[in-house]
Structure formats: structure tokens, C-alpha cells
Amino acid sequence: MMVSSPFGGGRAPQGLPRLPTPPTGWPIGSYATYGEAQQAVDFLAESEFSVSDVTIVGVDLMLVERVIGRLSWGRVLGTGAVSGAWFGLFAGLLLGLFVNQGFALQLLTGLVLGVLSGLMFAAIGYSMSRGRRDFSSASQLVAGRYDVLCQPRSAEQARELLAKLALKPPSVNP
């Protein structure tokens, strides 16, 4: 998988375009969920089909933000202290490895400074929002449907295989 950057870093895997490019190919299936589209491609792979010709395309994209909970000063400061503690432990560990004076003292110093800086940055960030966003959430990019495309040279063969998948009875999971 390639992560793109506006500065052009990294290399694209063999045969994939380097710049954002619309997908090509003929539609061989359309599915309501990504899991169904993935199952179709898995079925093609299990059937010894060349899946390098296949692309899954999310259509009708939407950003879904799921509200997780209400934010309060206690929750914000607690989260800031915990994240600061992890960073402080890491910094203290590094300091303890390279400084010859008291490994435990370096670790404890890093922990305390990390908690304090985490509290400070969390408090500053939350106070600057002035109550405009008193909830936490998680965002997810979701498609309305998922089309499976295939290069024309093997699209008919892929359609025939996926027709067999559609005829299979659904598996029962205990």
C-alpha cells in the first residue's frame, strides 16, 4: 500500500499509478458493504483468479462521525495525564539508557514531567474550544456501495466466478 504525500515521497507498488488516478475496468459486482466486496475478491483469489486485475471502489463516499461520549474537565485532564505519562515514560527510558545516573530516577522524572505537560496541553486545548465541542467522537470514511471492477481481458471470467458465489448458500457461523 502506498501512502501519498504532496511532496512525492515513497514509491508506488509495481504497476500502480503514482498520482491519484480514477479506477479503470468493467464492473463485475456491486455490494452494500466492504465486507461483501472483500469476500467476493477472496472468492476470486481462492478460485485461482488473477486478482491483480481487480479493484474495489467505494462509491458515494460519506464521512461518518460517531459520538463516543461527553467531554468534561475531568475526562480531558485524565486523558491528557495518561498520554503525557506514556510520552514521559518513553523519554525517561531513553534518558535512563544514555545517562549513567539512576535509571529509576530518570524514569520517574520523565513520568512526572510527562504527566504535568500532558495536563497542561490538554487544559490549554480544551479551554481554547470554549465549550463549542463538548463531546468526543471517531470519524470514519464509508461508502454507500462498493463496486468491484476488473480489467476487460478477464472481466467475463470474473463475472462467471462471482455468479457461482452468488448461488452458494450463506454459511452459518456458530
From TrEMBL:
The keyword RNA-binding does not apply. Keywords: Membrane, Transmembrane, Transmembrane helix. Residues 28-110 form the General stress protein 17M-like domain. It comes from the Bacteria. InterPro entries: GSP17M-like_dom. The chain crosses the membrane at residues 76-99, 105-126. Signal peptide: none annotated. This is Magnesium transporter. It comes from Amycolatopsis iheyensis.
